[in-house]
Design goal:
The complex is a heterotrimer of chains A (about 120), B (about 260) and C (about 230). Chain A is mainly alpha-helical. Chain A folds into 2 domains: about 70 residues, Orthogonal Bundle (Arc Repressor Mutant, subunit A), CATH 1.10.10; about 40 residues. In chain A, about 60% of the residues lie in helices and about 5% in strands. Chain A has a two-stranded antiparallel sheet with strand order 1-2. In chain A, helix 1 packs across helix 3 and helix 2 crosses helix 3. Chain A is elongated, with a radius of gyration of 18 Å. The relative contact order of chain A is 0.12. Chain B has a domain of about 130 residues. In chain B, about 85% of the residues lie in helices and about 0% in strands. Chain B contains 9 helices and no strands. Chain C has 9 helices and 10 strands. The relative contact order of chain C is 0.18. Classes of the chains: A mainly alpha (about 120), B mainly alpha (about 260), C alpha/beta (about 230). Chains in contact: A-C, B-C. At the A-C interface, helix 1 and helix 3 of A face helix 6, helix 8 and helix 9 of C.
């Protein structure tokens, strides 16, 4: 899983975002056990220390939790996942509409665009 | 650890030298063969050419033994390889001892090969007899046996060339403490060391002269010395050079322990 | 006891002060970037750790002890130059490392070499400079050391190999070991750094955790470097 990271912002925060997306999109299912810190780090090609920081932050955000056995698991909190999914969707939509407006499209035209492209898929 | 270092140093030097050894012995054999053809001018001439080549090869062996050893020392301690050498978990004493031992051993093998070549190329019963005869005519001056003289001479040469090896190392060690023109300084320091060693030898001889009339006569008069003279000189030469070898060894090792500064 | 410590280290060379009163502490378990322009003392600093140079004053301590046989056992050093005996084959070089270093994994070295497509029976002298550098890197990374020091490991290497080298560095990074990477190619490597040390004109001008620095200056380490070292 080759990941692209920007050097401009803290790496660990970028990792948090990526794992967050994996969880709220269902690529990591609620209650799934996460690979070890080392394996995750190798997978994303980052420093294990950085990965550790990211996991701590994810735990702070309640997106993952640690079992007594020291394994890390994705949250089972469906409400939280839905909430984050909504937030992410809102963010993307706002971004899209803003930029389309900058190009000069009206709301109606934007919706047309979405229908056209959406159906093609 | 020392054994391992020694193994690699020896392998490096002998790998190159063995080619020279083979070529030299080869020419020696050919020389003997072709010089034996007294009847044919062409074949005899080839023999003469091979004779010269053999001598050239013998000189080449000696030069290469020294140069390879010095080159290995320089590259291993001061060249790109030095990064590896100085990161090895071995003491500087071991590193230096390995260099000295390997080069002295190679010098020994070189001398053995040279002697064998000379033997193979030139030895005939007649040749030996004429040398013995010439020697007996000098009975008045030289009081020892021919064998002793030859062995003494070979041994003295061996020790002296070993000292030359080490003074080359001294030159390199001192030369590389300079900031520029390290090789140039190495050669200069090598020469200076050589002169210093020679001076010590002469001083040693003078001191010996205080106890030995024959030696003193050598300095003060023009008369021929007594027959014991040659033995004394040979023994002194060997003893003095062994002493100098030890002194140089300790000095060089001390220098190396002070640390290197690689570019 | 720190893994590596520089105490008031100065280094003169040719009458010039190359390093001026260097004080450093390197902790265990971190990847640290030693960043600076060429000729500012990075390599000198590294050579002092590896006994290729001796300090003019001050001390370099590894696990509390001076540079010596014990420190050399636990440090794996990859210099900028190709440091191997070129008359040997790759196989013989592996054997060499095996004989002198207890913590050397010959099998790992062979695996890495075959990954890179290198023939172990070839003489080093016959290989291109790039291939020689790869062999050098493999041999160093196959050691189980407490401190790895890589001096410009990505210089002059194609992008594919660069990725491979970074991957190898990361997968080699074991608990408790530290890696010091000295380089001026910052953007390629800054992603994996825990901490950065900026060195200029023989002095340490900055030490910081990498992410903290990014937040503070709101840009990449590469950008910070360019700003600080503007000509």
């Amino acid at each position: 899983m080759k990941q692209d990271f920007s050097n401009e912002t803290p790496i660990y925060l970028q990792i948090v975002e990526k794992i967050k997306i994996l969880i709220i999109s269902g690529q990591i299912l609620p209650g799934d056990r996460l690979p070890s810190v080392r394996d995750l780090a190798l997978d994303m090609k980052v420093n294990p220390n950085t990965m550790q920081k990211a996991l701590v932050e994810l735990e702070n955000l309640r997106l993952i939790y640690t079992e007594r056995t020291n394994g890390k698991y994705a949250t089972q909190n469906k409400k939280l996942i839905d909430k984050l999914k909504q937030e992410q969707s809102a963010k993307l939509t706002t971004y899209y509409i803003e930029n389309m407006s900058k190009l000069g499209y009206s709301l109606k035209e934007i919706i047309e665009q979405i229908k056209k492209k959406g159906e093609k898929k | 650890m020392l054994k391992k270092l020694l193994k690699y140093d020896l392998k490096y030097n002998l790998k190159f030298l063995s080619i020279f050894y083979l070529i030299t012995v080869f020419f020696g054999i050919i020389t003997r063969l072709f010089l034996g053809f007294q009847n044919s001018l062409i074949l005899h001439s080839i023999g003469e050419i091979c004779n010269i080549l053999t001598i050239v090869c013998i000189i080449a062996i000696l030069i290469n033994t020294l140069m390879r050893a010095w080159l290995r020392f320089k590259n291993n301690f001061y060249g790109d390889e030095a990064y590896l050498t100085h990161s090895l978990p071995v003491s500087k004493n071991s590193l230096y001892l390995s260099k000295v031992l390997s080069s002295v051993i190679c010098l020994f093998t070189s001398i053995v090969v040279i002697l064998c070549t000379i033997f193979v190329t030139y030895y005939t019963k007649n040749n030996w007899l004429s040398i013995e005869n010439m020697f007996t005519s000098l009975k008045d001056i030289i009081d020892t046996s021919l064998i002793f003289l030859i062995i003494g001479f070979i041994f003295a040469t061996f020790i002296q060339v070993s000292n030359t090896l080490q003074l080359g190392y001294t030159g390199l060690l001192l030369g590389h403490r300079m900031n520029n023109m390290k090789l140039g300084y190495s050669v200069i320091f090598g020469f200076i060391t050589h002169i210093i060693l020679q001076t010590f030898t002469v001083i040693g001889l003078l001191i010996l002269g205080l106890f030995n009339n024959d030696i003193m006569q050598m300095f003060t008069t023009n008369t021929l010395p007594s027959p014991n003279f040659v033995t004394t000189i040979i023994v002194f030469d060997i003893a003095m050079n062994i002493l100098l070898f030890i002194i140089e060894y300790l000095f060089n090792r001390h220098l190396l322990n002070k640390g290197v500064n690689i570019d | 006891m720190e893994l590596l410590e520089f105490k008031h280290v100065c280094k003169n060379f040719n009458g010039k002060m190359i390093l001026k009163d260097i004080n450093l502490k390197i902790p265990r378990g971190k990847i640290i970037g030693l960043l600076g322009k060429n000729g500012t003392g990075k390599s000198t600093l590294i050579k002092l750790i590896n006994d290729a140079l001796t300090p003019s004053s001050g001390e370099v301590l590894i696990n509390g002890k001076k540079v010596g046989i014990e420190s050399k056992k636990i440090i794996a050093y990859l210099p900028e130059r190709t440091y191997l005996d070129k008359s040997l084959t790759v196989k013989e070089s592996i054997k060499f490392f095996q004989e002198f270093y207890e913590n050397f994994d010959a099998q790992k070295a062979q695996n890495l070499l075959s990954d890179l497509g290198l023939d172990i029976n070839q003489t080093l002298a016959k290989m291109s400079k790039g291939m020689q550098e790869k062999v050098g890197l493999v041999l160093v990374m196959s050691r189980d050391a407490d401190l790895y020091i890589l001096d410009e490991p990505l210089g002059g290497v194609d992008p594919a190999t660069r990725d491979y080298i970074l991957d190898t560095i990361l997968s080699n990074f074991k608990d408790g070991a530290s890696i010091i990477i000295s380089t001026h190619l910052i953007s390629d490597i800054e992603r994996i750094l825990d901490e950065v040390i900026f060195i200029d004109e023989g002095k340490i001008i900055l030490t910081s955790d990498a992410d903290t620095l990014r937040v503070k200056e709101n840009c990449s380490i590469d950008e910070i470097f360019r700003r600080k070292f503007k000509c």
